[in-house]
Design brief:
Mean pLDDT: 84
Transmembrane segments: 21-40
Low-confidence stretches: 147-167
GO cellular component, one term: plasma membrane
Number of domains: 2
Number of strands: 14
Distance between the termini: 119 Å
Biased composition (Polar residues): 134-146
Largest sheet: 6 strands, mixed
Order of helices and strands: HEHHEEEEEEHEEHEEEHEE
Organism: Wansuia hejianensis
Protein name: Cell division protein FtsQ
Radius of gyration: 29 Å
Structural class: alpha+beta
Amino acid sequence: MRKRKSNYRKASKKTRRMIRWSVVGVVVLALLLFWGLFYITEVEVVGNTRYTEKEVENMALEGFFAHNSVLLSTFQGHINLDDIPFMESVDVEYLNRNKIRLHVNEKQPIGYVRQEDMDYYFDKDGLVLESLSAAESQSTDDSNSPAAGPAGEDGQAESGGAMSGSKTDTTAFRPALTDVPLITGLNYESVAVGEILPVEDPSVFNTILALTRMIDKYEIQPDSVEFARNQSMTLNYGQVRISLGTDSYLEEKMTRVAAILPKLSGMSGVLHLEDFTDDTQNIIFDQD
């Protein structure tokens, strides 16, 4: 009788142990199935102008959730990246079990000023967003723009399988800033990141914003934009200077600049648009 009870206890323990291991096995199998079923193999990036698709992917996709589309979009759907120059955040959109879309939110500089070998980038309100050494700014001009990045023509970046889970080195990224003009001639006593650039007339920022929009529209990026005290502007293109005057008739002036500038290639002198009006027929170029 005792022997029969002892055998029963041994059988019961063995059965419970088998059940426990079976449950563990089922859970592990379910986790592996869930992980493999929703493993990210394709990443689409939209809204990026400063960094390539691959760079954005490397910035945003790190840590435990980075490989799983459901976990990432559910628990890490908004990724703060304000420790990276000109980046604010990335929002994750679930597309299908193996594909996500990253929506990039960037800081928007409209120009920069140079002081003591440092370049200070400011937005449309004059808020100084970031500072880079002049050498760093130059290196960004020589780097690839997002349009020349590894993504295909459809704007998608292939993740190529596993993604690194290690902490991103934010200093490894170089933003493309070739579309942000150097602004000279502004009068201010000091400049600091996170503060408004203390110029004499804050309306100058509206002028710079309007000007940069025209520059982007016609794809005629100057070497620099020089302001005088009366807010008259001069655009510098190598040895060619465009005297725009104030921001009156700015769109009409920039339309003329876009048409005339290619004809001035290799020349040196001043194109006069400071007195331009609706009645202007002839535009004078004073050759050096």
